[in-house]
Amino acid sequence: MRKARYLVGIGLIGMFLISFTLIAWAYPTYLSIFKTTYDIKAGSTLTKAGCTVCHVSKAGGPKFNPYGTDVRKQLTDANTKQLTKEMLQKIEEVDSDNDGVFNIDEIKADTLPGDPNSAPAKVTRLHINAMTPAPSLDKLNAAFDDKIFRAIKNDNSKVADLRMALAENYLVLQVKVYDMSITMANADWDDALFEIAASMPNTKVMHRLVFQPKTDGVGDVTLYLDGEKQAAPTTIKWQSSQLKDGGYEINALVPLNVLQIDPTTPTFMFEAATTALVKAGGKTIFGSLFGSAEGYKDNAHFGTIYHLVVKPVTAP
After folding, report:
1. Together in a domain, 138 and 233
2. Which pTM was predicted?
């Protein structure tokens, strides 16, 4: 009996060691496939991350980050434990960690596709989420929980934060401008502007909205259709307010048809910038989302916004 128990014990230990060996072998194998697929260099952020490219823990284990969850789903859907290059490629145009940047763009920039706190400093493509239904202006903070949150920068530092989403017929925007030089000394920020510009792909036609915030919560907004100044439609809903430590905040619901964005196509070209008037007909660009130096003149350096195709609905 003792011999039988001894043999069973040895057998269980052997099975455990074999299982442990298989699990330990599986993680670096998956990682090596990832590194080979994307030619990950030694010493890079992705190489140093090791198992945390997909796992929560550096030691691997059963808990996966958002990117790892998407990789795991590919394996489950294919009913296999063998990861392939093709599986990884299927989730390249996915924003696993919901930081607004596609997985492939993060990998190319040597940032972590499963970590929302790791994203490229400069991007040319962003993914934005959809909201249903369109929120009211005073509910934007709650509506934007876990939604895209990107920095508007100049050459050296962040000057503003921008959240954006698509909601039914609206482009939903929230910008917080921190740079004190933009707010100027005037209580009504007469020299401060926030502007957005959009155009459809493969066209030079550009439409632009310029917001001039006021401390009373309203302010002025001007529309430029292909360079021609127009009266802004009253369907644009927006308000501005002063931030506690200086700067200003703008919340806006902009009908897509104002910027002539077609919501039934998956992309549009876009730029957002904080500016200040310096003299009649001139301006200084303090910071922009995609780095356009003259985004008010042309769309040559606009970024591409990717979004879920939505079916237009009757505006509320």
Report:
1. yes
2. 0.78
